[in-house]
UniProtKB/TrEMBL annotation, chains A, B:
<keyword id="KW-0479">Metal-binding</keyword>
<dbReference type="InterPro" id="IPR033749">
    <property type="entry name" value="Polyprenyl_synt_CS"/>
</dbReference>
<dbReference type="GO" id="GO:0004337">
    <property type="term" value="F:(2E,6E)-farnesyl diphosphate synthase activity"/>
</dbReference>
<keyword id="KW-0414">Isoprene biosynthesis</keyword>
<dbReference type="InterPro" id="IPR000092">
    <property type="entry name" value="Polyprenyl_synt"/>
</dbReference>
<keyword id="KW-0808">Transferase</keyword>
<comment type="similarity">
    <text>Belongs to the FPP/GGPP synthase family.</text>
</comment>
<dbReference type="GO" id="GO:0016114">
    <property type="term" value="P:terpenoid biosynthetic process"/>
</dbReference>
<dbReference type="Pfam" id="PF00348">
    <property type="entry name" value="polyprenyl_synt"/>
</dbReference>
<dbReference type="InterPro" id="IPR008949">
    <property type="entry name" value="Isoprenoid_synthase_dom_sf"/>
</dbReference>
<protein>
    <recommendedName>
        <fullName>Farnesyl diphosphate synthase</fullName>
        <ecNumber>2.5.1.10</ecNumber>
    </recommendedName>
</protein>
<keyword id="KW-0460">Magnesium</keyword>
<dbReference type="InterPro" id="IPR053378">
    <property type="entry name" value="Prenyl_diphosphate_synthase"/>
</dbReference>
<dbReference type="GO" id="GO:0005737">
    <property type="term" value="C:cytoplasm"/>
</dbReference>
<dbReference type="GO" id="GO:0046872">
    <property type="term" value="F:metal ion binding"/>
</dbReference>
């Protein structure tokens, strides 16, 4: 599945013209620069679990990854998290420059909405996909999460605020990935609800796992410095509940995700999604 | 028309919640911070000229203005044009901070694609609008133009390159504004072509006029410093052809725009669009 995602991402990038070469190089550098491809994988696996051939939703899957990639480029900027490395390579603004990185992010964000239109579903369903993606990634979703995360640096925040930051910053796009797979397959409301609970649960578990890896992870495997959250005095689960408490929470959430898909009468073949939920708890990068 | 645009822009902003207040304040600051509203006006006037009531395309008009506003916020950033003032007020990153300005831009860009979905036309036509907007504002359009503009600073460039920068940086979105009005009204191909020529012509004239005003304009009326292009050694029409030459070019282009709409057999009521073309040549800010 990973291979088909990589090929599709490449195919949806604009042609490299002489005049816009630098912009496209910067977009390509980050978009094809590795990464787990979790979001497009979730979208494709959900679509398939709901009976839709994955080649019909590849554009939507790539659109989600473009949004994710742009957000990383902008989050790494000096004015934001000021990171020099990402996925074991220089961050976009270090490899190019700040102006180029800002523009490459803007262009990837825009390209996501151009690409999603190519999803092979009917017109009304395509509109649902655009809505899902825009709502998840904008001022009530991912961008709000990044804003809240920045504002929370060095401050005391409540448990509720910590959950809200995670739900928006990482959770919203993971949730949308699963939901877009389901929406494309035009599943019934009950199945969409179950998949949404699944997505929200693994989304939060994924973020807690990220925080845990920032404390315990291997720099080489992660491709970025560990201890960054601590240095920025970021609110994290391990800082609040200890490593053991955070790990317990990951297990609970994973079980919740699995349970949601084991409800009777859902119109999906849940096994691969359940496997994925367990697999994510074991990741080391 | 301006009044209805201002009200609509406000109505499409997300509700102000306590947690995301700063992000929304920054978005609102720039989106409702004045401006000529040329792009939404063009879209609405075109739709009306093609027989469509403007209230049905207000979401599309606001979406275009959101894209325009985000591009100004990002262009003003220190890493880009490094401007302190815009429309007589502090630029977004000066009023808030760089991180907030980057995120407010991202959020407005995303909100544009959420808002455009509310346009009251059929599903397939809405998809055409999303495509038009994304193509015009992305890596083959506006963002590419900004990249080229930055790369051209202090360099000798050809006439063709100067035209390409203008066509992409400013022209693409003005062109899309007119075309979206026409697409929403489902005009025939001939009318769409004529309106596209009209849009491309006034778009280039508008940019040349901008360059002229950067030399001759009144700081108070413009709400920003003049001479900025010169200071940045930017390629401009006045720098290349002198003020008189640049003014002649504005007249020629305006005439070309008007002529395109005076072709027989077009399915539109062209008079207000023609008036607007002439009006734009007389603007002083």
């Amino acid at each position: 599945m990973r291979d088909v995602i990589e090929k599709s991402l490449l195919s949806f990038l604009p042609e490299r013209s002489l005049s816009a070469a630098r912009l496209l190089d910067a977009m390509t550098y980050s978009l094809l620069g590795g990464g787990k491809r979790l979001r497009p994988t979730l979208l494709l696996m959900t679509a398939r679990a709901c009976g839709l051939p994955i080649d019909r939703v590849l554009p939507a899957a790539c659109a989600v990854e473009m949004i994710h990639t742009y957000s990383l480029i902008h989050d790494d900027l000096p004015a934001m998290d000021n990171d020099d490395y990402r996925r074991g390579k220089l961050t976009n603004h270090k490899q190019f420059d700040e102006a180029t990185a800002i523009l490459a992010g803007d262009a990837l964000l825009t390209l996501a909405f151009e690409t999603i239109l190519l999803t092979e579903v009917d017109a009304q369903t395509r509109l649902f996909l655009v809505r899902e993606l825009s709502q998840a990634s904008g001022a009530r979703g991912m961008v709000a999460g990044q804003m809240l995360d920045l504002l929370a640096e060095g401050k005391r925040i409540t448990d509720e605020q910590l959950v809200e930051i995670h739900a928006k910053k990482t959770g919203a796009l993971l949730r949308a990935s699963v939901r877009m797979g389901a929406l494309a397959a035009e599943v019934n409301q009950e199945t969409l609800c179950a998949l949404t609970i699944y997505a929200e649960s693994i989304g939060l578990a994924f973020q807690i796992q990220d925080d845990i890896l920032d404390v315990t992870g291997d720099v080489l495997l992660l491709g970025k410095q560990t201890g960054a959250d601590l240095a920025l005095q970021k609110a994290t689960y391990p800082a609040r509940y200890g490593l053991a408490g955070a790990r317990d929470r990951v297990k609970e959430l994973t079980q919740r995700a699995v349970n949601a898909l084991q409800e009777p009468n859902l119109s999906l073949e849940a096994s691969t999604l359940i496997d994925l939920a367990y697999l994510l708890t074991e990741r080391v990068f």
